[in-house]
């Protein structure tokens, strides 16, 4: 198997390297991710313009359609400058975008992948105050409404990467299945839904 980078891949890596050297400075990181008084999304917008948040999203949905090798190399480069930025990009692409790509309905893919590729950030909501990141120990629950039109979700999440900045959350919760067994379900949630409250903005560390 040939792992040699193509000319296009090398050119993209060069543009990523230039961006990181010139833009991802300690002062910029503090302003963008580590501020206790809020978040400056300018850095995220630049990452979006460069295509870093759409690396593995299929081209038909507005992404770059690159493979895992290019993604890993880009993430390695980002991480060499700022761990926080690498985690934010990784959670967005490898947990949320990939989940929608692999397991979302066609309607969900058409609705969300273009937005996540070119417009907004996403968050992964697994960890909880009492169980940490133990997926099997989830205390959050969800159940289908009587009319079958929506899910009723109850619970609290903590340490959700990019949660205070995101337009879409992938939320993990326990659901009682028709056979009585409890299984973990992933739900698409938006911050404007009734009952959603982002009540703490944890400080990033880089």
Key attributes of the depicted protein:
single chain, about 210 residues, alpha/beta, 5-stranded mixed sheet
Please characterize this protein's 3D structure.
The protein is an alpha/beta fold and 206 residues long. It is built from six helices and five strands. The longest helix has 21 residues, at 83-103. The chain is globular. The model has no long low-confidence stretch (mean pLDDT 87).
Main structural class: alpha/beta
Number of DSSP-assigned strands: 5
Q: Residue-averaged pLDDT, rounded?
A: 87
Largest sheet: 5 strands, mixed
Radius of gyration: 18 Å
Distance between the termini: 36 Å
Poorly predicted runs of 5 or more residues: none
Question: What proportion of the residues is helical, as a percent range?
Answer: 25-40%
Order of helices and strands: HHHHHHEEEEE
- Structure annotation, total helices: 6
Approximate strand percentage: 5-15%
| Silhouette | globular
